[in-house]
Amino acid sequence: MSVDEIFDKLLSHESIFKNKKVLSHDYVPDELPHREGEIRKLAYILATALRGGKPSNVFMYGKTGTGKTAVARYVLKKLTERGEKIGLEFAYAYVNCRYRKTNYRVLVKICEELNCGNIPETGLPADVIFDRIIKHIDKKERLVIIILDELDWLVKSSGDDVLYQLTRINNELENAQVSLIGITNDLKFREYLDSRVLSSLSEESIVFSPYNAHQLYDILKQRADMAFKEGTVSDEALRLAAAIAAQEHGDARRAIDLLRVAGEIAEREGDTKLLEKHIIKAKDEVEKDLIEAIVRDLPLQEQLILLAIVMVKTKGNGRITTGLVKKTYENICAELGYRPVTLRRINDILSDLEMLGIISAQVTSLGRYGRTKVINLEAPLRSILKVFERDENFSHVLESFKINEH
What we know:
By secondary structure, the chain is an alpha/beta fold. The chain is about 55% helix and about 10% strand. A five-stranded parallel sheet has the order 2-3-4-1-5, sandwiched between helices. Strands 6-8-7 form a three-stranded antiparallel sheet.
């Protein structure tokens, strides 16, 4: 079928969508089902700003897709609207640290969000950028809220220097005040912070539990009513998507992705209603895309450890143990000219990969030889290899070690 024929086929059928943008990750609806308690807690913390005070710093913990970012944006939107009514000015900067993994790039993004002027992506000392942020913020009396989403990615990649600077920024301001909202998927995040940062944070915590299947169904029903034309989505399809996402850590983003991709599949197939069969097909596509995106965005050392796991698996050495992974990882580092991390850091990285669902690891006794972690690859090998094969350095390693997929 030619490209023109594909276009003609699509245009010959009426779309089942009426507003696809409500199925994007950035969309925040007017109501957030099953997050009323978290919304109230954050609202109480930030309400101090309506009387001219500085709210406490806030840390929001929970797995991916539990509504942390949506709740933060929702409450800040309401705070800004109320501030306008009573003559108070609020400003906020949002940075996703997963895509800005260096201290420099985080500061540049804060500058962009607060309209501090053009900053080059490289070249200036970080202290110069930080001074520019301070001067811009302090031009007038106002509260500035800085949201650092997926903050654990920054701290694990580049340390906590920027976080320390931001916790101390109010000491250098005369007119404005700054509060921080940190968002992390890692419940052990505080363990990675230096004691000087912990003593400066003075934060309050909000913990987000995963959604269950019933709650995910309510979320999908709300989005489906807004995204699709009436009568074009079966209730069975919504319940199946909710059940699948509930099994995967209660991830609402995953559930919404399933719904969006299923709708696109239904349209491609010329169907006028989204059914369970479309959700099943969407599951395969979403899983493949998700794994590839996660592996592609991993910090370098996590990619090297994962590559080592893949290499041990493809060599067919039986059980994948920490010792085998460490030895293979050190060989890869020698091949590429990188300095290997310590065994303790390797174990931390294995825990991170397990949290992401890429691997599973179980501590096993070796009798008089002690204990070790036995690792299983949970993500599709083919999807992981695709990412490594597209990278010139990694593909060279795969070739030189003669790794072939079984």
